[in-house]
Design a protein that fits this description.
The complex is a heterodimer. Chain A is mainly alpha-helical. Chain A has helices at about 1-10, 15-45, 50-85, 90, 100-130, 135-155, 155-170, 170-180, 200-210, 220-240. Chain B has helices spanning about 40-50, 95-105, 110-115, 135-145, 165-180, 190-195, 215-220, 235-245, 265-270, 285-300, and strands at about 5-15, 15-25, 30-35, 55-60, 65, 80, 150-155, 185-190, 200-205, 210-215, 225-230, 245-250, 255, 275-285. The chains are: A mainly alpha, B alpha/beta. The interface of A and B includes residues 11, 15, 85, 92 and 242 of A.
């Protein structure tokens, strides 16, 4: 398993996936920060507009669009990159079990996604300093934890996005399904059952934990996300193990 | 004789039978040419051997041991290139081989050795995206050799190569067989290539094995025609007409369409008729002529 993770790590050297992923994750945050600075500079100086308000906008935007879309993009690319370069056969022609091969891919992509979320958490703190917000230690811990929770919960999408790419053996159908799948995310503030969507359930959990959606009972989204993770991972492993791959 | 690969496979896609009860035996330490037209089922067979496709029925034995689709450990004994060799274009040749090394848990010292074998050691740090097709094919062989396999499977290794690239690939395969003593299975639709490389040949058409054996046994006794030069053309013609053979006459010689076994009788008869036989030369069928004959016969049967 370690050898498979090492081989996964080597593949991404000089590739566009990490660069695009990082830019995609960080640039919206920087754009929101610049926008906030231009429009609300006076309110920030007066202390009316706080880091809490800024973070509320960032996390909502992140969970609605950027987080699930970029997580899916990375997961889809990790499989599509192999099809495009005809390297999936090289991996399958090695004496590693198919279960280990696909599981190591899920683990590596999950770690990569968590690293990207960690970079967002760091940039969020830097932005807060640069914008001149009053910052407390508790806020740094809380907001960074929410962003990392967003990363952890979004892992549920990874096996689904990989499965779709394996089924279609292409990038476009999987990406279209992912984009369509994020539509319920936009209804998080208006539809209390939007956690039934695998793309929206991470958003509901993070916003609930962050106190932005206090009326939601967290038990149901937690049950749903756990069930989805088990189902998607099982389907992915079974499909990869038993289907003809070429 | 010990066999490195033995298989008996059937694969259907709906109503279309890609491979039907195909039994091939690849002798250990030899180069086996797997010959067939495009779409005859060669790649499907190789994919089934490598566990990439599940056969509908049958099995594959590697060194006499039946393989189980759930157990990939046998793949450590095989190196393969199936159709296009796949590489990460964003990485150098060396880095690509490092990934293969991780997959096979082998020593990184073998990377340099493999690159030297295929004469790519001087471009090991160059990005694979900048490699020509011929270089990629050679890198594919280096990639397949990295874990010192006992069996090397090359699916159409000369596809898309220019004539010089084909000659280089042929030399490389012959050299691998000679120096490393590994079993090589080369699939191709290029008959002359197989004739030049292989010790054994299996001919497949429409998913069925039509002929299998050593390349010499397939070529032997497959006379296309016999060329005869004598001192008297008219008299020779009369003798051949008496023997009832089909022949073509030119100013200098006769081309007689007969079996190899008939050659001594023809010679005997000519001498009996006081003819001086200056030249008696058997012209064997090329593998191409044999192949076209065999597949043609098979198509007619079907």
């Amino acid at each position: 398993m370690i050898n498979l993770l090492k081989s996964e790590n080597k593949k991404y050297k000089n590739s566009y996936i990490i660069t695009l992923g990082l830019l995609g994750m960080i640039s919206p945050l920087i754009i929101i920060a610049i926008g906030t600075f231009i429009v609300r500079e006076d309110l920030i100086i007066q202390g009316v507009y706080s880091w809490h308000s800024f973070f509320g906008r960032v996390i909502s935007f992140f969970m609605m669009l950027i987080g699930p879309l970029l997580t899916s993009f990375i997961a889809i690319s990790s499989i599509y990159h192999e099809y495009k370069s005809h390297t999936l056969e090289n991996i399958l022609n090695s004496p590693n079990s198919r279960v280990k091969i696909i599981f190591s891919k899920v683990v590596y992509v999950s770690l990569m996604v968590l690293a990207l979320y960690a970079s967002v958490a760091i940039v969020n703190i830097i932005c807060a300093f640069l914008l001149g917000f009053t910052i407390t230690e508790a806020e740094i811990i809380n907001y960074s934890s929410y962003i990392m929770l967003a990363g952890i919960t979004n892992i549920v999408i990874i096996p689904l996005a990989m499965l779709l790419t394996l089924i279609f053996k292409d990038f476009i159908p999987a990406m279209i399904i992912v984009v369509a799948g994020t539509i319920p995310n936009l209804a998080a503030f208006h539809w209390d059952k939007c956690y039934l969507s695998p793309f929206a359930v991470p958003e509901v959990i993070v916003l609930r934990v962050a106190g932005i959606l206090p009326e939601i009972n967290i038990i149901y989204p937690l049950i749903i996300i756990t069930s989805y993770l088990i189902i998607f991972l099982t389907l992915l492993i079974l499909y990869f193990k038993y289907s003809n791959q070429y | 004789m010990r066999y490195a690969i033995e298989c008996d496979l059937t694969k259907k896609y709906g109503d279309f039978t890609a491979v039907e009860k195909l039994k091939i035996k690849v002798p250990e330490g030899k180069t086996y040419g797997f010959l067939g037209r495009n779409g005859s089922g060669k790649t499907t067979t190789i994919r089934m051997m490598m566990g990439l496709i599940k056969p509908d029925s049958g099995n594959v034995k590697i060194f006499g041991k039946k393989i189980n689709r759930g157990d990939n450990s046998y793949l450590s004994q095989i190196g393969a290139i199936i159709e296009t060799p796949g590489f990460y274009n964003n990485l150098s040749a060396y880095e690509n081989l490092e990934i293969t090394c991780e997959l096979f848990k082998c020593d990184k010292q073998s990377i340099k050795k493999s690159l030297t074998t295929v004469r790519l050691d001087n471009v090991g740090n160059r990005s694979v995206g900048k490699f020509s097709l011929g270089m990629k094919q050679r890198l594919g062989i280096a990639n397949a050799l990295i874990h010192s396999p006992k069996i090397l499977i090359l699916d159409e290794p000369t596809n898309g190569l220019d004539p010089i690239g084909i000659i280089e690939m042929r030399k490389l395969i012959k050299n691998l067989s000679k120096t490393m003593g590994i079993t090589i299975l080369v699939s191709s639709h290029l008959l002359n290539e197989i004739q030049l490389i292989a010790d054994y040949v299996g001919i497949i058409d429409n998913g069925k094995l039509i002929k299998e054996g050593s390349i010499s046994s397939i070529n032997a006794n497959q006379q296309n025609y016999l060329i005869i030069e004598t001192n008297n053309v008219e008299k020779t013609e009369k003798v051949l007409n008496d023997l009832n053979f089909k022949f073509d006459k030119t100013d200098d010689f006769f081309k007689i369409y007969c079996d190899y076994e008939d050659n001594p009788n023809i010679n005997k008869k000519l001498i009996k008729n006081d003819l001086k036989v200056y030249n008696l030369r058997s012209h064997s069928k090329t593998l191409e002529e044999r192949f076209l004959g065999i597949t043609g016969e098979n198509s007619q049967v079907n």
